[in-house]
Amino acid sequence: MSANTARCPMGHGTTELPEQAESRPTHVGGVQHSGAKEVPVVNWLQPAQLLADPYGSYARLRTEAPVAWVPMLNKFLVTSYAGCHEIEQDQSIFNANVSGSTMNRAIGAHPMLRKDDPEHATDRLAVNPVLRPKNIKEAWAEVFARNADIYLDELEDVGPDNADLNRDYAAPLAAKNLGDLVGLKDVDVQTVRTWSHDFIAGIGNVLDDPEIWRRCEASTEQADALINELIPHYQLHPNASMLSAWANSGLPDANIAANVKLSISGGMNEPQHMVTNIVWALSNHPDQREQVLADPTGWTAVFDEAVRWLSPIGMYPRETTVDTVLEGVRIPAGSGIAVVVAAANHDPAQFGENAEDFDISRPKKSHLAFGAGVHLCAGHWAAKSAIGQIAVPKAYERFPGLRIEESRPGQWAGWVFRGLTSLPVTWN
Amino acid sequence: MPSITFTQPDGTAQRLEVEQGTTLMRAAVSNGIDGIVGECGGQAMCATCHVYIRPEYADALPELGADEDEMLDCTAAERTERSRLGCQISTGASLPEIIVDIPAGQV
User: Fold this and answer.
1) Where does B3-101 sit in CATH, by number?
2) Is residue A24 part of a domain?
3) What is the ipTM of this complex?
4) CB-based contacts of A119, cutoff 8 Å, min separation 6
5) Nearest beta carbon to residue B107 from set A7, A19, A378
6) B101 reaches A (C-beta below 8 A)
7) What is the pLDDT of residue A94?
8) Considering the domain boundaries, does residue A132 fall inside one?
């Protein structure tokens, strides 16, 4: 093949922006030392503040104690880019197979996201071919576009005086795309949403609400019944879906069911939130909105900057296997670690002094919105396509002047998972 | 021990001695070599460990795999005939030493 003419199906490709090698500034606040130091303890975090808007707390943590013991959460919170990045480089020290995993309980199984290699790789490698850029473009881009049109029609029916971009477009579209890509066949959108919501509620059920566990069990039972039917179906009739790839991988049915339920849990809220996050960001930065509408090649940068600036997954857990030192702080074996990637993604040491700003023209730098290392979000290319290249650009094409409707305020919620639970919009 | 030499776009070279079987990506990430990201941890799911292989080592490399070929279309810096993903190339008996050039960007 001609090496110089190939194009990435996702619009990624040659850039004129070289990555500058930057040294990391020394931390202020006396936290960074060459030797290990006493563990900073943080008692000032307010749960209500984190849920309403965590970014102020993140900035203070990064400055005062980027690796801190937080008794309220019974975990070490890591908020610097360097700390979060280092964790993801060594799964033998920072295990994904955490104790008391709410995820495992929520879906009644042990998915790849809570395994380490080599067990993780066995599950993951089977589905990677489905989720690389080529298969996403050739097998799925058309489906994602058709689904977007279906829900743009519904949004249009609601009209510019009453439309809620989350309720009428982002949420049903994300569920439809997910059901198709996973290969859930004829399951209706509302069922996909119910399962996903129940599993997500279970993953976040740190307060052990028995009603949430009951709902998880009900959804697990329904999903397992379907998956057990679909595995032999796809063995006879393979297609380009994730379930088909797993069904034909030779993996035990229990592994397949665990990872399908993981995909249902993790593949809906985040793309849904990215639709509304991007429209919210562009509405609040009209100059950048005009820039991308004038030059659609900019949608790649818009998605990448929005997922950094407003990361839908704010935090995920790890657990230390041995005594270790992270960013100068001693951490004992068996400690719970909260990898706060949303905080790391605003770290001035990685993104410069304007790290807190939304800027689609900023120099390209690696961020952690999709994680890093072997657990890098399996669906990241699918999200870039379905949301960044299709769902959002199509919405602006359909509705000139698409913007948030200030008279009907939207609602942000969450920090572990963060997004807009409603986003009233209007158009011309 | 096998050796890997990473050359930066400004010409600075760093030579590492590594265990047999170590991939170029893992060696770079473990030793803090600037300009190699290795975002996906070596699954050929990203294209952020892109390197340019010096021609004199080309014959000692494993064949370009389909996954790697596909991902090389998504490199940030220009893909050339010398382009490979560092995660797909291991040092060892058939590749006791190698020199690679690091591209100007990975993301």
Assistant:
1) 3.10.20.30
2) no
3) 0.92
4) A112
5) A19
6) no
7) 97
8) yes
Token output for A238: 């393979």
Q: Could you report the per-residue pLDDT of A140-193, keeping only the tens digit for each?
A: 999 999 999 999 999 999 999 999 999 999 999 999 999 999 999 999 999 999
Distances (CA, A) of B75 to A8, A208, B28: 8, 45, 17
| Residue A416 placed within a domain | yes
Rounded alpha-carbon distances, angstroms, from residue A130 to A268, A301, B18, B69: 17, 24, 33, 15
Give the separation between CA B20 and CA B85, rounded to whole angstroms. Answer: 18
DSSP letter at A209? -
Q: Is residue B84 within a helix (H) or strand (E), and if so which, with residue range?
A: strand B83-85
The pLDDT tens digits for B72-103 are: 999 999 999 999 999 999 999 999 999 999 99
The residue of A376, A380, A384, A389 whose CB has the most chain B CBs within 10 angstroms, and thus the best one to mutate to test that interface, is A376
Query: Phi then psi for B60, rounded to 5 degrees?
Result: -85, 0
* Domain ranges for chain B: 3-101
| 3-state DSSP helix/strand/coil % of chain B, to nearest 5 | 20, 25, 55
Domain count, chain A: 1
Q: Which residues contact A182 (CB under 8 A, 6 or more apart)?
A: A241, A242, A243, A260, A263, A264, A267
The answer to whether residue A200 is domain-embedded is yes
Residue-range definition of the domain harbouring residue A264: 47-426
